[in-house]
Design brief:
The protein is α+β, with helices and mostly antiparallel strands. The protein is built from four helices and six strands, in the order ααββαββββα. β5 and β6 form a beta hairpin.
């Protein structure tokens, strides 16, 4: 069952975020974030965030785009969107990265929290880094 609450501010931010990312529109994607926003994608240590502290502020989030989102050829399928309270949601997403002839599917749960202006204040993506790295190494061969 998908909760279709696109009028909910966090779900609206989620949908706009994945649309901008798929289009490769960095400025539209960044415009969705509050100046002091935080992105953890994934939550915890990863190759692009070894300390696992995430990216705080628009400048750091822009760097995350340049390192992770911008170079990727990714599509997003948002299977389930669950609003929680007036400003948060959790979304089950499958991100598919095209690596040559191979498609790498990443299952994730992403939480969004928006401020009173509807800007993303916190984005946290939960996915299995080790499993994705194994699949990526297999697809790259």
């Amino acid at each position: 069952m998908m909760t279709d609450s696109s009028d909910h501010p966090a779900i609206r931010a989620h949908l706009l975020s994945i649309e901008a990312a798929e289009r490769g529109d960095k400025s539209a994607w960044l415009s969705l974030f509050a100046e002091d926003a935080e992105v953890q994608d994934p939550v915890g240590p990863s190759p692009h965030d070894p300390d696992g502290h995430g990216f705080q502020g628009k400048a750091a989030i822009a760097g995350f785009w340049d390192q992770v989102i911008g170079p990727a050829n990714t599509t997003f399928h948002s299977q389930l969107r669950i609003p929680s309270g007036p400003s948060s949601c959790a979304c089950h997403i499958t991100a598919t990265n095209q690596i040559g002839a191979h498609a790498l599917h990443i299952e994730m749960v992403v939480t969004y929290h928006v401020n009173e202006a509807g800007e993303i204040a916190a984005l946290r993506a939960y996915w299995d880094v080790e499993a994705v790295m194994r699949a990526f190494r297999g697809a790259a061969q």
